[in-house]
Amino acid sequence: VLSLPNGDACYKAFVRKRTTTDRSGQEIYDLGVEIVNANISTIEELGMELYKSDNFEEIISSIKADSSLYFKKADEILAYNQAIMDTAKLNCENWFDILPSVEATIKPYLPHESGVGSYESATENTPPYFRLSLKNPNQQTYQGNEKLSFHEAYPGHHLQIGIEKDIRGLHPIRKFIGFGSYVEGWARYSEQLAEEMGLYNHKASLISRRSWPSRGMVVDTALHIKSWSKDSVINFMMQSGQKKTNAENLYYRIIVSPAQLTSYDVGGEEIKALRKLAEKKLGDAFSIKEFHTKVLENGSIPLSALRQTIEEWIEYKLTTTKAKKS
């Protein structure tokens, strides 16, 4: 983008559009690098326990080569995903006061369809679906399917979008606009929340869920404001375990849709930051269920509006707590 006339202002506008924040590209890059390095440190600790290695690249290679983590048959993929989705849905009752009125169901891709997994929200004629690939089971892993399920279904996209569809009285224009940094940010936050909820069955999942997040914040900004080469961008993504073809696809995606890849983790980190702020200021008065209600009750909104909502809720809680004590 910077090679275009007014490229700096153009990329800043893309960041504003995609993240609904005033963060600069440099700030996003710096935050991404910080989180990637922190994730690597955690992965090296987990790798010692699982593979007796504290070398990041060796740990990623060990996971990719671990035959015990791969499915053998297509029906195993379907059965496993149904089981973990059912468990997650039931467990959500302990973490949320409101849940979608309509449950998501698994719908495998048909033979003529392709995809690695996605969420399809309900329409007037169809229920919400968690789409799942049953192709090439010996190339699909348990940890990959766990992270995908928790991102797309419960407590991820379906829980957030399903709750939003139940909200009455939203302005009709809301049917035509959405905020990816909020939607994808919630799904990324859900990957971490699923760990807190005890939903991951495999320790390799705790490594895999940390290997990719925030790298999108690094490579998008690095390409557009730091002039990283194509090879540098692709190699940085492949370090996380991405296949070269996937990394190349993401490289071209960054070019045609600047800043979009930053929206996932900018959104996820903002929700985490707001939760830490609430926990710190409210102390014993903090309720995870109430926090989640405040995050979800207005549907998809800009991150700036979400911060205002949470800060006002914190002040309200502090005021009412003081009033009760007096």
Descriptive account of the structure:
By secondary structure, the protein is mostly helical. It has 14 helices and 3 strands. The chain has a 3-stranded mixed sheet with strand order 1-3-2, with helices on one face. Strand 2 and strand 3 form a beta hairpin. The model has no long low-confidence stretch (mean pLDDT 95).
- Average pLDDT level: 95
Strands side by side in the biggest sheet: 1-3-2
Beta strand %: under 5%
Q: What string gives the helices and strands in order?
A: HHHHEEEHHHHHHHHHH
Shape: globular
Helix coverage percent? 55-70%
Please outline the major beta sheet.
Answer: 3 strands, mixed
User: What radius of gyration results from the CA coordinates?
Assistant: 20 Å
Poorly predicted residue ranges: none
Task: Please state the structural category.
Answer: mainly alpha
Give the termini separation: 57 Å
Q: How many DSSP-defined strands?
A: 3
Number of helices: 14
Could you give a quick summary of the protein structure above?
Helices cover 61% and strands 3% of the residues.
Topology, pairings included?
Elements: H1 7-19, H2 25-51, H3 56-65, H4 74-91, E1 105-108, E2 118-120, E3 129-132, H5 142-152, H6 157-166, H7 180-196, H8 203-211, H9 215-225, H10 230-238, H11 244-256, H12 263-282, H13 288-296, H14 303-325
Parallel strand pairs: 1-3
Antiparallel strand pairs: 2-3
